[in-house]
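step: validate -> pass
step: tokenize input -> pass
step: predict -> running
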Amino acid sequence: MPLADEISSQIKAAMLAKDADRLGALRLLKSAIGYVAIEKKVDVLPDADVLAVIQKEVKKRRDSIAQYTQGNRADLAAIEQKELAVLETFLPKQLTPEELEALVRAAIAETGATSKKDMGAVMKAATAKAAGRADGKTLSGLVGKLLP
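step: predict -> pass
step: emit ->
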């Protein structure tokens, strides 16, 4: 089942269960997916694009949680945390630190990187290999650490 259809069926299930928090998060996600579909001038987004939208929304929630926590607004951070939990159910299983390190080492070997000047090429290769299973910030930190 395509990811967009899965989200729609989850919306129906949340409506039937009268789960307002989950329903709100799912509707926001479906809206974001709709905007991207309009932007790309397609009726149905492929799963890769839907996954990219989900990752973008997850990143927004994480940033918001950090800002709200820093601003002593635990009530708003809790709302964002609930939305984040709903969105994360649609993401693929994240790579373990060991798997991530092996992936980055393979990307470094593949690109022939020898210094931090080659970080861009390594990041491009590693991001493609990770395919949504790793956070860009974590990936970047690991690439920076492993490059001489």
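step: describe -> The CA atoms of residues 63 and 80 lie 10 Å apart.
step: cleanup -> pass
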